[in-house]
Amino acid sequence: xxxxxxxxxxxxxxxxxxxxxxxxVGLVGFVSAYKIFDWLTPGVNFSDQLRADNRSVAIFLAGLxxxxxxxxxxxxx
Length: 77
Fold this sequence. Notes:
By secondary structure, this protein is an all-alpha fold. It is 82% helix and 0% strand. The relative contact order is 0.11.
């Protein structure tokens, strides 16, 4: 007897759809968190500061994104 492969294909398709949905939720979460944080700090223009090579702003944003990644990663699982 030959094992059926249609079940594996359905599992793979569900897995792929789950990954794409998680990716979309993560990206929307990152962009919305950045926009909210930018709105909460009106005196700091992050794009201008990054263009001016302000490393403290870059380190702060990197920490913000790492923290959001950890938070969203655990929420998406």
